[in-house]
Design brief:
The complex is a heterodimer of chains A (144) and B (142).
Chain A lengths: L2 H30 L9 H24 L12 H27 L4 H29 L7
Helix pairs in contact in A: 1-2, 2-3, 3-4
Chain B lengths: L2 H29 L10 H24 L13 H24 L2 H22 L8 H6 L2
The chains are: A mainly alpha (144), B mainly alpha (142).
C-alpha cells in the first residue's frame, strides 16, 4: 500500500474516533445537564465522520486500488495526491475550530471576524481538495 | 474495470464535485455571507453527497470487484438491470436535488422513488454475486 494511502486511512481512523467521541459528548449533554451549546458541534460531528472518515477512506483506498493510469505514472500525479491530503485535513481542522467558534463568540467582533474568515478559508481548502482529487482520479477510472 | 463501473464511478465523481461546491458555498456563507439563497443548497448538498457520491461509488466498485460467474457471456450477472439501476439512481438524485431547491414535495417523492427502484434492481442483480470465490464447489466447503 503506498504511503499516501496509509496516511489517508490512518488519519481517517483518527477522525472516526474524534467524531464518535463528539457524538458521545453530544448524547451525554442532556443526561448530564451540560450547556446546550454542545449541540452546536453537530455539523462538525457529521463532517468529521463523512469527510474525515468516509471520504478520506475512499480517497486512500481509491488512490491505492483504482486501475493504474500508466506505467510511468501509475497513480497519477503523486504531488497532487499529497496536496489533496494536506488541503482536506487543513480545511477540516480549520472548520472544526471556526464553525462552533463563530457561534459562541457572542459580542466579541474581533474574534468573530477571525473565525468568519477562517471558515471561509476552510470552505475553499475543502473545495480545492475535493476537485483536485477528482482531477487526479478521473483518468484512472477506465476499462482495462 | 467493466464499462458500467466506469460510468457509475465517474458519475459519482461528478456528483462529488457538485456536492463539495454546494458544501463549500454553505460553509463560506456561514462565515462570510455570499448570497441570501445559499442556505437553500443544504438539502441538495446532503442528497448529492449521500446518494450521488457515496452510494453510487460503492455500487460501481461492488459491480467491478464482487465475485463473478464462470459463464463468460454473463460473468457480471444481469447487466441490463444494472444499467437501469445506473439511469434511475442518477435521474433520482438529480430530480430530488432540484425538487429540494424549489421545495417541490411531489417531485422529491418521485426522485426518492426512482432511487429506491435503482437500489432494488441493483440488489436483485448483485445478490447472487455475494458468494465464495471459486463457484459451487467452494461454496460447499465449511
Amino acid at each position: 500500500m503506498p504511503a499516501l494511502s496509509r496516511y489517508f486511512i490512518k488519519i481517517g481512523l483518527l477522525y472516526l474516533i474524534a467524531g464518535l467521541l463528539m457524538g458521545v459528548i453530544m448524547r451525554l449533554q442532556p443526561v448530564m445537564n451540560w450547556s446546550g451549546q454542545i449541540q452546536l458541534l453537530r455539523p462538525v460531528y457529521l463532517h468529521l465522520i463523512f469527510i474525515g472518515w468516509v471520504t478520506q477512506l475512499i480517497m486512500g483506498v481509491g488512490y491505492w486500488m483504482f486501475p493504474k493510469l500508466s506505467r510511468e505514472k501509475p497513480r497519477g500525479n503523486e504531488h497532487t495526491g499529497w496536496a489533496v491530503l494536506i488541503l482536506l485535513n487543513t480545511g477540516l481542522i480549520l472548520r472544526s475550530i471556526s464553525e462552533p467558534g463563530i457561534l459562541v463568540t457572542g459580542t466579541d467582533t474581533t474574534l468573530r471576524t477571525g473565525f468568519a474568515w477562517m471558515l471561509a478559508l476552510a470552505s475553499m481548502l475543502l473545495l480545492f481538495a475535493g476537485w483536485l482529487f477528482i482531477f487526479n482520479t478521473w483518468g484512472r477510472i477506465k476499462e482495462r | 474495470m467493466p464499462k458500467l463501473s466506469v460510468w457509475m464511478i465517474r458519475a459519482s465523481l461528478i456528483y462529488m464535485g457538485i456536492g463539495f461546491l454546494f458544501g463549500s458555498l454553505i460553509l463560506h456563507h456561514k462565515g462570510i455571507p455570499i448570497y441570501p439563497w445559499t442556505w437553500k443548497l443544504l438539502n441538495p448538498h446532503i442528497e448529492i453527497m449521500i446518494f450521488g457520491w457515496t452510494i453510487q461509488l460503492v455500487m460501481g466498485v461492488a459491480f467491478a470487484i464482487l465475485p463473478r460467474f464462470s459463464d463468460r457471456e454473463n460473468r457480471y450477472g444481469a447487466e441490463n438491470l444494472t444499467w437501469w439501476s445506473f439511469y434511475l439512481i442518477n435521474a433520482g438524485v438529480a430530480l430530488t436535488a432540484i425538487a429540494d431547491w424549489h421545495v417541490l414535495n411531489r417531485l422529491a417523492f418521485v426522485g426518492r422513488l426512482l432511487i429506491l427502484f435503482a437500489i432494488v434492481m441493483f440488489t436483485i442483480m448483485i445478490f447472487p454475486r455475494v458468494k465464495p470465490l471459486g463457484g459451487f464447489i467452494a461454496s460447499q466447503k465449511p
